Request: fold
Amino acid sequence: MTCYVEVRCPSCDSLEVNKAGFNHHRVRRYRCVNDGCIANYFMLKYRYKAYQPGVKQQVVEMAINGSGIRDTSRVLKISKTTVLSTIKSKGSMLIQVNPNIKTLELTCDAVELDEQWSFVGNKSNQRWIWYAVDHATNTILAYVFGRRKDIIFKQLKALLEPFGIKRFYTDGWGAYERNIEKEKHEVGKRNTQKIERKNLNLRTWIKRLTRKTICFSKLEKMHDIVIGLLINKVEFGVDIHAKLQI
Ligand SMILES: [Zn+2]
Reply:
């Protein structure tokens, strides 16, 4: 009796697949001949799980959902080094300013500024995410990472410059007092309450993540990339799994 196994391309699900020899472990390789498919060569069985289609996407999804390196490594059966390098490789694609301002037709007249604390490795190594939210829609406009210092806030302010913002609502932290023109600056809870009730999803998520990342990694870079990926995906609508165009 002969058995036939249907072979589909893992990327485009096409049946237009040819045999393409064997790899050096004598495992059958296939080639997708569907026009426009990015997969080309693939195998049905992978000795090393990390090469399996979709595994790297899962690494990234698990990270932005708060899984630590060790958890991800265990669940996906890949090495911790691979988890780390997969996340690190995403760092260069991140953007810090929302690319959809024009499409969303936001006026950006007024913004709320907020900063969230976390630390990397030990408590003396403080890490802050500073970000600006459009007051009317609660859309994140831009973010930066760093210490809770004026110089970091100035970076955020520089990113906001093109928007021509007329009003800044803040909690009154010194860096804001020192770096925002008085007539444009308003301190207090009054103007942030409404928005905090309306849509807390992302802020809550960031908070949870910054808390969780306490044991996630000792590397500042990893910490920043994971939160950056979250904002890029959820808030900016960026396809964080897209292959980098070099
Ligand atoms: Zn294909």
Observations:
- The pocket of zinc ion is lined by residues 9, 11-12, 14, 32, 34, 37, 39 (CB under 6 Å).
- The beta strands are 17-22, 28-32, 41-43, 110-119, 126-134, 140-146, 167-170, 185-187.
- The first helix runs from residue 55 to 64.
- The first strand starts at residue 17 and ends at 22.
